[in-house]
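Priority: medium. Attachment 1 of 2:
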């Protein structure tokens, strides 16, 4: 029997970034859009707990992925630096409202990584609150595009130990630099000191 869940490594994407039938695997066991199903195939649900973002695709997988993107109803959502900062301000509002404890956060151009300590709300509700406040903040700052911002669903890895949390914190904190973005420091992030209480 596993020890109790004490935190989550959450990954949720912007619209069009990681589709439910991505050849690398996805969070979904169902493709809701018929055109997407026809273009790129069935859902690719996986229970793998490591990121597949860097996985190299075979040529046929690349073409399948590209075919799926051609049927999207809107362009892919890619944040610019001003939007990244606004999303961060929205997350800060959510943290202030619900007292989430986020110990690492990377807001990338097309997805977000966060390590969130266990809360009384289900992690899906925590992520929904973060996304909602970020969307509202983009609107308040005149930076909200006339298209969907977030993809459906997301991926959550359950963390059972301080060592797992520390590993995920290091991974999340390294993400912006790996992608060529400036290092990120957010006021709503609580430094991880090894205790989840």
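Attachment 2 of 2:
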């Amino acid at each position: 029997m596993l020890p109790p869940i004490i935190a989550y490594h959450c990954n949720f994407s912007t619209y069009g970034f990681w589709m439910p039938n991505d050849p690398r695997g996805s969070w979904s066991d169902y493709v809701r859009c018929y055109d997407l199903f026809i273009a790129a195939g069935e859902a690719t649900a996986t229970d793998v707990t490591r990121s597949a973002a860097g996985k190299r695709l075979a040529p046929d997988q690349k073409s399948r992925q590209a075919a799926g993107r051609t049927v999207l109803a809107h362009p892919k959502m890619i944040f610019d630096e001003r939007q990244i900062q606004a999303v961060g301000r929205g997350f800060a509002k959510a943290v202030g409202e619900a007292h989430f404890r986020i110990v690492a956060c990377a807001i990338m151009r097309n997805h977000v990584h966060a390590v969130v300590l266990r809360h009384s709300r289900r992690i899906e509700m925590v992520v929904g609150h973060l996304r909602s406040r970020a969307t509202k903040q983009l609107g308040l700052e005149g930076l909200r595009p006339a298209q969907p911002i977030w993809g459906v669903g997301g991926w959550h890895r359950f963390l059972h130990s301080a060592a797992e949390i520390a590993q995920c914190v290091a991974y999340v904190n390294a993400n912006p630099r790996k992608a060529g973005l400036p290092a990120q420091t957010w006021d709503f992030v609580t430094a991880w000191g090894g205790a989840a209480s």
